[in-house]
Write a structure and sequence with these properties.
Rossmann fold, 17 helices, six-stranded parallel beta sheet, alpha/beta, 2 domains, single chain, seven-stranded parallel beta sheet
């Protein structure tokens, strides 16, 4: 059995869970070829991600002439299949001319990829956005079966514009990372097709799964590990720290991550005079993330929109309780036994949960962390979940 994985950008700092899934599939004896539509992240702090660079073929790194010649050869070699894929590409644009042009580019990408994976048994795409569109076009061009994993929230924000229903209809399987995610796919498909919708959860790295207990945390450190983007609700966390300062609560918060909102967050921190209470570290490798989590009483993630964040799994695997919001698939993992789940958008509830974490006895925090760790090990073992994906491919 030969399988190819397709991602919009791989390897990437925020896509290490895909690397672990691929490793889990390969551990079953199924070889996986990696393909990225766009060039990988320029900065990859984790050595395991950097090791993937030489194993990944980047479609848009190919000479433009090579991509064009692949499209011409495909059109001349099987005009009927090419025309069918062209019609599908235009239909996925839903009557939007600029989007239709973008989908023509996807078709060219698909022509190159279809020729590269000729003879493969399965093409699997991560994310229901452009990777799933390219995978569908490869299927229409070549007959190779495809599947894709939906993460959210992007796919759930615009399922009609992404034509998720058509992508699912032509796919062998569509995979969600939570029961909530599967329910959203069920919204956009007929009940008779629900049998091809599956749940395969994201897995954590072995260094988190095998981590021994660390000393109890006695300080007043909290940590937020996240991409610095709008969906994470990070300005709310700055407001909460400001509110706690006015209540004479002592704490330090570390933002571990980077992204398009970094400059804006830095301005907010400076404007409120919180430079001594809040630190932004930028991206860290796995060891750096573990170190920050183990030094914290709790990991805080006040997201507005999510799928099911891997960092929540990683924190709980390290026996660190979590403060997060009641959205998407989060309540499938986090409840009062292992953390605090608050309404999204509420500064007051977020601040109250942070005070509770700071005031809790360290032994009680460890008990909560142990409860969370047991759930993560049962549901988010990358090796087991990779094997589950291989089983789907074989089916």
């Amino acid at each position: 059995m030969r399988v190819a994985y397709l991602v919009n950008r791989y390897p990437a700092v925020s896509h290490s869970f895909i690397r672990r899934e691929i490793a889990g599939v390969e551990a079953t004896g199924v070889p996986v070829s990696r393909f990225s539509i766009r060039p990988p992240d320029a900065s990859l702090p984790d050595a395991a991600d950097r090791a993937e660079l030489d194993r990944t073929a980047v479609i848009l790194a190919q000479p433009k002439l090579a991509l064009l010649m692949a499209a011409i050869a495909t059109a001349l070699g099987n005009p009927s299949r090419f025309l069918r894929a062209l019609v599908a590409a235009v239909k996925m644009a839903q009557g939007r001319p600029k989007v239709a042009l973008r989908h023509i580019v996807y078709l060219v990408e698909a022509c190159w990829l279809a020729r590269r994976i000729d003879g493969f048994d399965r093409l699997h795409a991560h994310f229901g956005t452009n990777p799933a569109a390219v995978a569908r076009l490869v299927h229409l061009l070549s007959g190779i079966s495809y599947s894709f994993t939906v993460h959210g929230p992007e796919e759930f924000d615009a399922p009609a514009a992404l034509d998720l229903a058509a992508k699912i209809a032509d796919a062998a399987q569509a995979v969600a990372i939570s029961d909530f995610g599967r329910s959203q796919l069920m919204r956009w498909t007929a009940p008779e097709t629900w049998g091809k919708l599956h749940v395969v959860r994201c897995g954590i790295d072995e260094t988190f799964a095998d981590a021994p207990p660390a000393p109890l945390v006695m300080g007043a450190e909290l940590v937020c590990v996240a991409r610095l983007s709008a969906q994470k609700g990070l300005p709310l966390l700055i407001e909460a720290v400001d509110a706690l300062r006015r209540r004479n609560v002592s704490l330090h918060l570390a933002f571990v991550g980077d992204g398009e909102m970094r400059a804006e967050l830095e301005r907010m921190i400076a404007a409120r005079g919180l430079g001594l209470m809040i630190t932004i570290t930028g991206y860290l490798d796995s060891a750096g993330v573990r170190s920050r989590l183990l030094a914290a009483r709790a990991m805080v993630l006040p997201s507005f929109a999510e799928g099911l964040p891997v960092v929540i799994m990683e924190a709980l695997a390290l026996r660190v309780p979590v403060i997060t919001t009641a959205i998407a698939g989060v309540p499938e993992l986090v409840d009062s036994a292992c953390g605090w789940v608050v309404p999204a958008g509420s500064v007051e509830a977020l601040a109250d949960a942070m005070i509770a974490a700071l005031a809790a006895d360290p032994a009680e925090l460890r008990k909560m962390g142990e409860a969370g760790r047991a759930r993560v090990l049962a549901r988010h073992d990358a090796r087991a979940n990779g094997a589950a994906m291989a089983k789907l491919f074989a089916a």
